[in-house]
Amino acid sequence: MKTIYLDNNATTQVAMEVLETMLPYFRDFYGNPSSMHSFGGQVGRKIREAREQTAALIGAEPDEIVFTSCGTESDNAAIRSALVTLPDKRHIVTSRVEHPAVKALGTDLTRQGYRVTELPVDKEGRLDLDQYEKSLTPDTAVVSLMWANNETGILFPVEKAAEIANERGILFHTDAVQAVGKIPISMKANAIDMLSLSGHKLHAPKGIGVLYVRRGTKYAPFLIGGHQEKGRRGGTENTSSIVGLGKACELAAQNMEMENTIVKKLRDKLERKLLDRIPKSRVNGDRFSRLPNTTNISFEFVEGEGILLLMDQYGICASSGSACTSGSLQPSHVLRAMGVPFTMAHGSIRFSLSIHNTEAEIDFVIEKLPSIIERLRSMSPYWHSDRQACTVEQKETVSHG
Amino acid sequence: MWEYTDKLKDHFLNPRNVGEVENPDGVAEVGSIACGDALKFSFKLDENRRIKEARFKTFGCASAIATSSALTEMVKGMTLDEALKVSNQDIASFLGGLPQEKMHCSVMGKEALEAAIANYRGMPVKEPGEQIICECFGVTDREIERAVRENNLKTVEEVTNYTKAGGGCGNCHEAIQRIIERLLSETGPVTRPKLSNIQKIRMIEETIEREIRPSLKHDGGDIELIDVIGNRVLVATRGACAACKASDITLKHFVEAKLRDLVLPDLAVEEVTS
Predict the structure, then answer these.
(1) In 3-state terms, what secondary structure has residue B128?
(2) How far is B52 from chain A (nearest CA, A)?
């Protein structure tokens, strides 16, 4: 059975060119880039190139790139560095819809005596900038807001938010793990101090991440050790993955337009057709300010895990914000923060595409999903097909009239 | 991804007895959409007052659908008194086991069955004086007490896995802990449902795996279950235990004590050499 992979916000396949670029660095060029011999030195040169490629993708300078092990490490390093370099300040501003890498760290810091403000979002998942501005105090050390939400794809106005923080001398960090490679980013044109990105979300392997640190920003390392990364991150470089990430960033820059044309078109088709064909379904969150590859759709009166397992029978991969799939007993914190009703939140499915998806795959999902939802609804005590289908039709007649 | 058994997957992919019985003798709906799962169970009796037809409609995850399907198959042909003896463990065992975090699905099945029988008998479902302990999922003290008694639960986390209580905001964790402590300190032995042989062996295996092996391994030893004959549990010692002079004491005072405490008070552990 062919796999139809629509879960690219969870992780992506390593691009063939990326893998090929990496292989010699396992096999032939295994030298330590810090070594004094030319055997290691040639690896150091390749890392320099990867640093340039990575910087280019986000419009940064190569010396602003710190290689880490993953997005979570980058998020932790950024926020902890801000707190260490501003020891008198005890307040952090973030949002209710952050990735656990930031959210759980916030909870942990609260236990250590820091004050954490989690800004709410509206029902479309949007941030209120006025409320954000009011939350900043002289005691605020750092703001951490995600650029794009992993579950809904919704974009926060982080560039505007960074300016507001900057005017008050507050450090600004953004978790841009989902945004990098999908929307244009130029660090030269904004006031963001620190930015996290992750390799495996953009067709590089797992286990490699980056923390961008703006020149002149005071920085205290998270991993203390050798002089690697100019003393900003100890530990021998993960050379093959760094080289792979460099290549992936180069490809992402080339493919960015495809993300916003071809991938977006496929996403829009999937979304439109599913909403047309499946009554009582809706998109969660703002449909305009959103990543081009992501859609989060709720199917009322059914539960997400059942949908995923039935899709799995056809080789279709996606994610759900339902309680049963999260391992906790409550639906996703993102959908709850948006006030998505429980009847909808439990049946939410996230489809996240990549440039490797084809129209035939999307058509296959459009063909299969209505009967999957129908099948689960026929088992649901809350679904009364005649009555509820009627309501939908009436509503449509009204809107057409 | 959850580790589901093939039988569970089969009951999810090919659920038996979906729907509602026409003119049912008993019907009940438990759970709610806010809680993430709900089950409507209905049945009809034949002239011998045995369950002739049982049907379900379930909103919930794969294991909620599979346990509902299993329940309708299990109770068919039973008298109502027989059906009332079906425990949530029986439902889970029928499917070859459930992940711990999904045990609440089997409890929901048991509750729906009881509520439908109460509906037929014209009895109130809730006992007077019941108090909601978990506000998030609407779980009462009686429900928690019963799950603790019938499944021998010892921690708040286990109670959450079996009843969902405490799985939301977490404000009721202390109240749940107090219920567990009260039941543990109650005088007299905790009444346990009678175990079938297969259930007994499975529980012994689980107890060894979860409660006994980690401690032995910590000291470089290990234990293997060889056989269970009646209430005789035959085991072989391995690693450091096999050469240890004190292994007799370990077997009596630790292994046997644990098994007696957690499985059956009549068990006797014997060492076999193999």
Answers:
(1) coil
(2) 21
Which CATH code for domain B6-121?
Answer: 3.90.1010.10
| pLDDT digit string, tens, across residues B36-83 | 889 999 999 999 999 999 999 999 999 999 999 999 999 999 999 999
Instruction: Measure CB to CB from residue A380 to each of B12, B57, B63 and give the nearest one.
Output: B57
How confident is the model over B179-209, as pLDDT tens digits?
Answer: 998 888 875 555 556 677 788 888 888 888 8
Q: Is A390 a catalytic residue?
A: no
Option in A325, A343, A379 nearest B33 (CB): A343
Of B21, B19, B9, the C-alpha closest to B46 is: B21
pTM of the model: 0.81
Domain ranges within chain B, ordered by starting residue: 6-121, 132-185, 197-271
Which of the listed CATH numbers 3.30.300.130, 3.30.70.120, 1.20.58.100, 3.30.70.270 matches domain B197-271? 3.30.300.130
User: What residues of chain A, 292 to 321, have a C-beta less than 8 Å from chain B?
Assistant: 301-306, 309-310, 313
Under a CB-based contact definition with an 8 Å cutoff, are residues B130 and B33 in contact?
A: no
B chain contacts of residue A310, beta-carbon cutoff 8 Å: 13
Burial of A92 (0-12, 13-18, 19+ CB in 10 A): buried
Distance CA B33, CA A225 (A): 52
Q: Per the CB < 8 Å rule, is B36 touching A323? A: yes
State whether A342 and B137 contact (CB < 8 Å). Answer: no
Give this complex's ipTM.
Answer: 0.85
Instruction: Catalogue all structural domains in chain A, each as residue range(s) with its CATH number.
Output: 4-8+256-400 (3.90.1150.10), 16-252 (3.40.640.10)
How many CA atoms lie less than 13 Å away from B97 in the CB half-sphere? 11
Report the CATH architecture of B132-185.
Orthogonal Bundle (1.10)
Considering B105, B134, B172, B241, which one is annotated as catalytic? B105
